[in-house]
Amino acid sequence: MQQKDQSLHERIAELTRLNENLARQAGAQAPANGDPGTEGDQHFSSAFENAAIGMAVLALDSHRLRVNQAFSDMLGYSKAELLTTAVFDVTHPEDLAEDLLQRERALAGEIETYQREKRYLHKSGHIVWAHLTCSLVRGADGTPLHFISQMQDITERKRAEQILREGEERFRALVELSNDWFWEQDEHFRFVQISGDVADMASVTSAQSIGKLRWELAHVGMDDSVWAAHKALLERHEAFRDFEVTRLDSKGEVRYLSISGVPIFDASGRFTGYRGTGRDTTALRRSTDNLRASERLLHEITDTIPALVAYVDSEQRCRFHNRAYQDAFGLTSEQLLGKTMRELMGDEYYEKTLRSKVEEVLAGYPVVYERKQRVARGGRRHFVVNYFPRYGDDDDEGKVIGFYSLATDITELKRIDQLKNEFVSTVSHELRTPLTSIRGSLGLIAGGVAGKLPDAVQSLVGIAKSNCERLIRLINDILDIEKIESGKMKLELQPVPLVPLITQAVAANEGFALATGVRLALHCEDENMHVNVEPDRLTQVVTNLLSNALKFSPADGTVDVHVKRQGLGVRVEIHDHGPGIPEEFRGRIFQKFSQADSSDTRQKSGTGLGLNISRAIVERMDGSIGFETESGKGTTFFFELPEWKLPVTTLPGQPLPPRRPRILICEGDVDVARLIGIMLDKAGYDSDMAHSAEQASEFLARGGFDAVTLDLKLPGQTGGEFLDALRNDEKTMSLPVVVISALPGQGELKLDQRPSAVSEWLPKPIDEDRLISSMQRAVSALKGRKPRILHVEDDLDIQHITAAIAADFASFEFAATLAEARECLLSKPFDLVLLDLSLGKESGWDLVEVIDTLDPRPSLIVFSASDVLPGGRSRPDAVLLKASTSNADLLHTIQRVLKMPEATEPPPTE
C-alpha cells in the first residue's frame, strides 16, 4: 500500500508539472476567444488526447470546452455528453463548494494551480474518486482565458484506504477489549510499541519499556539458561508461543506472564523485528497449581484406602485409579489409564460377567457383586465390587457420564467365614451325638428305669433333661442358620391343608402353655385353606412364634391364634398380652441372637435365633413375616403365605369352566408381587409368585404359564440375563413377557446386540387398568391368529429355514423378485415384510416405496447380508445381519415387531 501511494504521488507530481507546462503553452498560443487549440497546436493536442489520465478544458464560467477520452471513460459519458453536461452535475454535492472556492482564488490571482481529492458521479450512479490538478491559463497580457484540469482516478486507492481504516478500527477495538496486550520490537529486539499500560501486571509502565530489551526489564526467578535459550530462538528469527516470564506487579506480588511472538520481514525478506501478544496467566497458573494440589491430595487419600478405587467414563475407559488398583493388576498408571474394561479384564470375563453389570450402572443403577480375580502378586483374591453411577452437570445434567468402582478385598473374610461355617458344622454334629445319648439316658432315668428316685434326685434329673433339650435346640438352630447362609437349606414344598397343620402345632405346645399357666386359643374362619409349604418347617415357624408368645404372656393369660384369608393369601396371627416389644429393639428383632433382654440374668430362656430362622423359612416359601406391637398391651406376630388353589372337580356331564390363564409374577418385593396378584385375580387370571430368579426358573420348568411379569431387579440375575435364559429355552422362548419395573427409562434391553422379546413395558407404581390391558394383549397375542409374513428372498434354502423357525408363530408367503413381491403386497394384506436387500441385480429398497403406500402398512424387518441404510427412506422396524443372527434372534425379533398395535413401546436406547 505504501509503495502504491508513493508511486501515485510521484505520478501526480509529474502530471502537475506537465499540466503547468501545457497551461503555459496554451496561454501563449491561445486565441483571444479563449478556445485553446482551435488553430491546433499539434503538441498540445497530442498530449491532451493521448493522456492516460482524464483531462478537460473549462471556460471561466465552468462549462467544458474540451475533454479527452480518458476522462470520458472515467465517468462513463461520451465526450459529447460531457461537453453538454454541467460540471456541477457530475461533481459530488459535498465537493462543489471547495471547487468554487479554489477557482475564485485562482481568478483573484491568489493561486495559479490547486490540487485536491474530490468525488465525481459516474453515469451509472456510483462514486469515482479522483486526484484533481487544475491550472488557470492566462493570455499574453495576463488576462484569464480558461482552466486546464487533470483527473487521476484514485478510486481503488480510496477503497484500499477504507479497508485499511476499517481493519485498524477493528484491531483497535480488539486491543481495547482484549485482556492481552500487544507489543512490537525492532530488529535489535528492543520494544518500539506496547499497546496499553501493563503497570498493574509489572513493576514498569509501557512507556518505561520502550527502547529496552525484554531481559533488561525486572524479572524474578528467571534462570540465565532460560534467557539464553530465548535469545538463541530470537537470533534464529523463529516464532515462539507461551514463553513464561515472572515479574513483580505494583504491589510487589509475583505475576506470571505468557508471551507469544512472530518475526516480521519486509518485502525484500529483511528481518525487521518481532510482533506479538502478552497475557497475564497468574489466575490460571494458581488455579492449575490448586488443581494439581487437589489431585495430589485425592491420590494420597485414595492410596491409603485398602480397596481398589477407580473411575470409568461412559466409554468404559479407566480415567482414575488408586495405588491398590494399580498393584492388583500389576500395571503402571500409563498402562491403566485410557484402557477399556474389556482390555483390562479380558474378552471372556467381560462378555460372560462384566458387560451386563457395566451396562446396568451406565443406565443409572448401582451395582454390587462379588468376583474372584487373579492379582499380580500371585493367587486369586475375592472382591466385593460396588459400582456407583456418576451424573454430569450443565448440559449433561441428569445424564450418566461414568461410574465409580470400589472393590474391597474380602478374601480373608471369606476364609474366616468358611472356617466358621466348618467349625459350626463340625462342632454341632460332634455335640449332637453325645447329647442324644445324654437326653436318652436322662429320659430313661426320669421314667424310672433305675427304680424310683428320691425327690431331690428326680428334681436334679429334670433340670438336667430340660437343659439338655435347650442345648439341643440351640445346636439345631445354629445348624439351621448355617444351612440358610450357605444355601444348603432345601425345602420340599407340597400342597397341604393349613388349619390341621396349625392345630397340630398348637396341640404340640399345650404342655409348654400349661407349664407357663397360659391358655392357647385357636380361631379359624375357614377350614378349607391350602398352602404350598414344607409341613415340618412351617410347624417349626409356628412353634417358634408360639414359644415366644408363651414366654412373654402373663400367668393366667391367653395367646390367641387366628387363621384367616387376606387378599389372595392366608394370614396366621399369634397374639399375646405381654409387655410389648421395646421401641429400641424393634428394628433388629429379626437379626441373629437378638433378644429384648440380653443380660446374663435374663428370665426368659432362648437362643435369639428363632425369629431369624422363621423369617428365612417363610420367605423361602414365598411368604412374608412381621409384627405389630404396643407397649403394655402385647404383640402380634404374623406370617402370610399364598393360598394354594386346588383343581375344581366337576360332576360327570357338567361342562368344565374355562381355564383361567396362569401368570408367573417374577417380583423381588413380596408386597408388590401380592398386589400384582390381587389385580390379576380380579381380572380373571391365576398367578404364581417367584421372588428370585431361582424360584422363577423352578416354576417355569413345571410349565403351564400363559405369560410372565418381570421385575428387572429380580434377585439372583439381572433382567437381561433372565430374559436371555428365557428366550434360549425352547419351552419358554415364545412366552409373552410384561416388564413391570421402576426402570422404564432404561429402555429396550440389548443382549450381545440381540433384541430381546418383551411384549409390554410398564412403570411402577402400577396402574391397574394398564396392567390388565397389557396382560390381555400379551395373552391374546399368544393365542390369536397367526400373523401373515411376506418373505422377499431369492435364496430357497433361507426361505425354508425361516419358515421352519417361525412356523408355529406365523404363516409365510415368499417372493423371489421385486415383481412378485409387488404383486403379493397389492393383492393381499400382510402383517410383516421380511426383506432381503440384494435380489440379484435388484435392490430390495425399491420395494419400500410400495410398502409405504399400503394401508394398513405392514411392519418391515431388513434381513440381509448388508445393513447399509440409504437416506431418504422410511426406517425399518429392525435390521438383522444374516451372518450374525441366530435362529432365536430372528424369531425374537419377529415376535417383538409383531406385537399388538396398542402395545406400549419403550423409548429406544441410543
Description:
The strands form nine sheets. This protein has a five-stranded antiparallel beta sheet with strand order 2-1-5-4-3. It has a five-stranded antiparallel beta sheet with strand order 7-6-10-9-8, sandwiched between helices. A five-stranded antiparallel beta sheet has the order 12-11-15-14-13, with helices on both faces. The relative contact order is 0.03. Residues about 30-35, about 35-40, about 600-605, about 650-655, about 745-755 and about 900-910 have low confidence and may be disordered. The longest helix is centred in the middle third of the chain and has 36 residues, at about 410-445. It is an alpha/beta fold and about 900 residues long. The protein has seven domains: about 1-160, PAS domain (Beta-Lactamase, 2-Layer Sandwich); about 180-285, 2-Layer Sandwich (Beta-Lactamase); about 305-410, PAS domain (Beta-Lactamase), CATH 3.30.450.20; about 430-480; about 495-640, Heat Shock Protein 90, CATH 3.30.565; about 660-780, Response regulator (Rossmann fold), CATH 3.40.50; about 785-895, Response regulator (Rossmann fold, 3-Layer(aba) Sandwich), CATH 3.40.50. It has 27 helices and 36 strands. The chain starts with a helix and ends in a 13-residue tail after the last helix.
